[in-house]
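Here we describe the complex-level prediction in full. Unlike the single-chain runs in Section 2.1, the two entities below were treated as one system.
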Amino acid sequence: MSKIRIGIAGYGNLGKGVELAVRQNDDMELVGVFTRRAPETVKLLTAGIPVYPIAEIEKYKDAVDVLIICGGSATDLPEQTPALAKLFNVIDSFDTHARIPEHFANVDAAAKANGHLAMISLGWDPGLFSLNRVYAESILRNGETYTFWGKGVSQGHSDAIRRVKGVKRGIQYTCPVQSAIDAVRSGSQPNLSTRDKHERVCYVVAEEGADKAQIENDIKTMKNYFDEYNTTVNFIDEETFDREHNTLPHGGFVIRSGKTGANLETNQTIEYSLKLGSNPEFTASVLAAYARALSRMAAEGQTGCKTAFDVAPGYLSPLSPEELRAHCL
Amino acid sequence: MSKIRIGIAGYGNLGKGVELAVRQNDDMELVGVFTRRAPETVKLLTAGIPVYPIAEIEKYKDAVDVLIICGGSATDLPEQTPALAKLFNVIDSFDTHARIPEHFANVDAAAKANGHLAMISLGWDPGLFSLNRVYAESILRNGETYTFWGKGVSQGHSDAIRRVKGVKRGIQYTCPVQSAIDAVRSGSQPNLSTRDKHERVCYVVAEEGADKAQIENDIKTMKNYFDEYNTTVNFIDEETFDREHNTLPHGGFVIRSGKTGANLETNQTIEYSLKLGSNPEFTASVLAAYARALSRMAAEGQTGCKTAFDVAPGYLSPLSPEELRAHCL
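The structure predicted for the assembly as a whole is:
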């Protein structure tokens, strides 16, 4: 069987992750990376893969089965995904929750009008966490669903720390509160806000001679970012910072605490959790699996826009339906 | 919108669970229970629901949208599901893993020939655990998947205990070994057999004057059941037994420990777990959600046999695709 020909649009952390994920799937091959930068300035991790200017992407429309769009949700994807869905079958990881219906409508129209299939908002949240919320809420009809994020790096909060006077380097981890997780697992269905469920842990390299007490106070009292959370600020030296804070871990928990029985007297708990050494590498692995699903569903003649809710799980697997039934049920 | 009309074939623990699950889904109604027993001897939990002899089930074929078959996998379902798929859209929880391909083929042929849709092997294992294995293995291509069961009652092992001389009452719980779970979560990908992962905990009421040391020895050395496991035998009085061992809890864990990155240097862990106060009530809740999916897929004209791998998650939810995208992604 011929391999699924993958293209990558955008080569940041996520694009690199997709490059690596394609290597782990022997039914896929990477045919090229498309970039806004000067192609000769982009060094891939893999020898022999061409880099093309994204302005010329239309030339390659018959060479790519699935284009994985690795831009940012704020400005790139709202433009790129509908435009590229006119030329390609596309996947993105659009994660601005409030704008998903609008993005879906734009991508759906562009894909349908051109006979293409698109999938949006894939990754782990939105994506796998969304799926698990829907499975769990469809099964346990009476109950509460709790999502915890972390331990993981929050880019927005890390940027905010770095704007504080006297801060040379800074990173912020969002951490779930263990006592809140324990309360949820107990079946007591507590009322918890996002801030009850999470605390913020910061690592800071101060500039020489900076007032550390002032930095700590400035961070902890920062409106909208830290003031309503339990926040810890740790000062470390630059060498430690470089050694211990150079990866992008993340993860989290989706817990559905439900009740069944004649008087809803029976506790039932469904829990899904991720512990990710690298957020972009994992997100990319999700995108690669959905690229397989997309190529199969497109071969069946499906067009328009889909989300994780529309994709039967068997499509993600390299195994055939017969193999899945025999070995995985 | 008219409600999904549910029928139940077989009224044991699982059938009772389905009766209760239908109550929790306001887009469903229970139209009747079909039994091999004399209908007047079967007391339902809900007033006003008719009980019919299963021998006359054909009369009701236009009154039921989805028939949930609640028989046992050993002898009931291999006969009942193909036979009833000629008359109804059907769902079962067939769980004899080795015989699933054969069962699938029989049900598929019967359903297709009669324009019906069937779903088999639904519940949590097979079912939700199977799904999670497939999602996780499709995403993390390099890695190991571990399934732990328990803490939960094993009917076969409980029966075995009760055959030991001097045992009046007995129950056996299969328990996952915490140190094995911890090793898996660490990312070390240990080699673990089923018996490395589980221990067996027994609660026994001895007959008066029985030799407890002998009972304990007989249980712990029982071939194929206990001899190769770490087994604990606890003697309790009958009152405690009745009070503390009268429910059917179960659960377990599916953990995928994977690696990503250029040199597979990044640990990534996906974990799915269930903690169930009642195994039959939970399994029934899964069947009810898939009954909703089945009624929608049948309305689209789909026929033949499906498993959890073939059902897009959105079909399980009472929410519309638009609502799911707006609120659950």
